[in-house]
Amino acid sequence: MLNKVPEVFLLFWIVKIMSTTVGETAADFLAGNLGLGLTNTSLIMAGLLALVLVVQFRARRYIPAVYWLAVVLVSIVGTLISDNLVDNFGVSLWTTTVVFAGALTATFLAWYRSERTLSIHTIVTSRREGFYWMAILSTFALGTSAGDLVGEKLALGYLPSAILFGILIALVYVAHIKGGLNAVLAFWAAYILTRPFGASMGDYLTAAPKDGGLGLGTNGTSGIFLAVIVAAVAWFTVQQRRADDHEALETAAA
C-alpha cells in the first residue's frame, strides 16, 4: 500500500497543534460540561477511536479526513488516559510522565528492532502503521502528563508553560536546520513537544482569569479550532486528489 502518513510541512504542524488543543478542551467539555464523567467519556471516545482506526488500517493510502479524525480522537483518548490515572486512580503526574515516557521508548525500540527505521515516510505496511499509532497515542498521553506536571504541579502556569514548550520546539527546529539533528529524531521530538504546547495553550485560552487563563471557554475555543481543522483537511483532500489524478495520468501515459 502507499504511505499512510501525510507530508510534513507547516500546515501539518498547525493542524496537529490545533488537534492537540481540541483534544484537551473536548475531553474537559465532554467530561465536565456535559456531565459524562471521565469514565463514560473515556469509554465513548475509545470506542470511536477504535472504529476510525479500523477504517484507517483498511485504507490502502493516505485519506486526509480519516487520518486527521484519528489524530483528533487519539488526542482526546490520550488526554483521558492521563486524566483517568491521575484523577480516578490517584497516580501522581510524576509517575504517569515517567510511565508514558517508558511506554513511548519501548514502542520506539520495538518498532526499530522490527523495521530498522522510525521514519514516517515508510508507513507502507500494517505492522509499521500499528507501531506508528502506538507511538502517537503514547506521545499524546505523555504530553498531557508532562504539560500538567509543568503547568500545575510545578505551578509554572499555563502561558509560561506554553512559552517554555514553544521555545523547546524552536530549539529542535534550529538543531535540525543548523545543527544537523537527524530528521527522524527531530520529527518525533517536535511531535512530543507539540502535545504539551497545545494542551497548555488550550488551558490558557479556556481557563478562567482567576486561574491564569483568558476565560474564552471550551465551547468557543473548540468550535473555532475545529473549523480551522476542517478547512485544512478539506484543503488536504483537494491536494491529495490532485496528486492522485496526476499520478493516474502519468501511469496511463507510461
TrEMBL record:
Pfam families: DUF347. The keyword Membrane applies. The chain crosses the membrane at residues 33-55, 62-81, 93-111, 131-150, 156-174, 181-199, 219-238. Keywords: Membrane, Transmembrane, Transmembrane helix. InterPro entries: DUF347 (IPR007136). This is Membrane-anchored protein. It comes from Nocardioides zhouii. The lineage of its organism: Bacteria, Bacillati, Actinomycetota, Actinomycetes, Propionibacteriales.
